[in-house]
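Problem 12. The chain below contains 511 residues. Write out its predicted structure in token notation.
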Amino acid sequence: MTRRTWAVAILGAWAASLGWLVKREFFRPTGTRLAEAALSVPPGAVYYRLDVGGQQVGFASSTIDTQATSIGVTDMLVLRTPALGVLHRSVVLSRAVLSRTLRLEGVLARFDGDLGRFTARSLVNGDSVLAVTLFAGSDSETTRVPLARPIVLPSLLPLRLAFGGELKRGKTYASVVYDPVRLAEQPVTVEVAAESTFVVADSALYDSTAMAWVPARFDTVRAFRVEQRAGGMTTRAWIDAQGHIVRAENAVGFAMERTAFELAYTNFRHRDTTSLIRASLSPGPGEVVATTVLAARQLLPHDTTSQLRVRLTGVTPGAFDLGGGRQQQSGDTLLIRREPRATLSARYQLPARDSSLARWLAPAPLIQSEDPRIQAQARLIVGREQDPTRAARRIADWVRANLAQRRTATSPGALQALEARLGDCNEHAVLYVALARAAGLPARTAAGLVPVDGRFYYHAWAEVYLGDWVAVDPMLDEFPAGAAHVRFSIGGLAQQAELVRLIGRIKLEVL
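Solution.
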């Protein structure tokens, strides 16, 4: 072999080695990068102050605990908001277990608030099935949801972005997150923008003159700004290299800001709640109250409105499920029209077989439409009826007649409502949807606000597909529901933790 041949062979081997090295370092699969980077995830805790419209309404914390084969992440959120002279408290706690490649293995979530108390345990089996078990008192119910891809918790998305190498200016990242409180999946898109510098209080001392904790030392933190879009809502957050949020804010004025524990929690715990409660006794017209009508001991009148036009202040277009179907949004004005009876004639026979509606026929957490007890009750109600409109009306009449209107302290699940035969708007809505799906009727839950004496209260109802989506309120025996049902979300009941972001920013003026 000549020297020239040897030189070519050596250069070829060097080029191949260099190519392999470049591929290994710059074109590695995300899972490989995460597996290596996650080894450097540090344990620790960060704390946040939660504000709405400049007023602190709660605090949050995120704690990471690293183990030899897993990573534990505990997130807590506490909200205390005054409404109608009462301090309403909501607590959301989640404990997630991740693999060393930051894949979700399981999460235990607890919700305790005015809209109910429940515990949900979600376990991932081989990235293909999510088993969700709901606990309410001594009862439990398990639902298995097929997965098309690995899922991520919303609170863990910043961690994956940081350690997956996605925090680069101009980078776009798409994923699917699973909310353990709403018990629903949701696609998200993240765009990474410029990096900024923040000065964050990392310790505090007690000021006896002000009788409050004040910042003692500060830390300088670099963080990338990311725009996250999910469910029509855009959230802006700044994430540091450790995957922690430094600051986050959304379009309706809900903000969280990292700070020292004493500033986030202790000062908030000892705030003057008396004046806040007194001020909440008489909210102004159009104010949003984060409680149900039953909880506020108000009588929800029968809604016979055929058309409602409201002006929304403080709502960014696309922030909620405001447009579509009976609701039309134009700028800051929302027009809601009650479906005329002429449009209630269905264009198919039971059971519905449209593949595009499969999502609204399948069982889901809180909507156990495949449970034998739900199936049997649906058969008793519908019988041999094949007309969707008449079947939908029969189910609404039955739910109205057989569920007592009473607040419960359990999870708002369809099976629990069927057995207890009582509940508020949540139970009426999920039981109706479960029975409808069991009968072959595409149906989904809807949640939003209803006006009572100038204030807007949380309310839930259902929508059934009869060629078009039709609002049905089984609790009020409205088929279709009146136009004074202002929808904010579709599919998956909006929990109180979500509605708190409306307080102090959004106002609805009936035109």
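Discussion. The chain has two domains: 38-269, 288-510. Students who got a different answer should revisit the alignment rule from Section 12.3.
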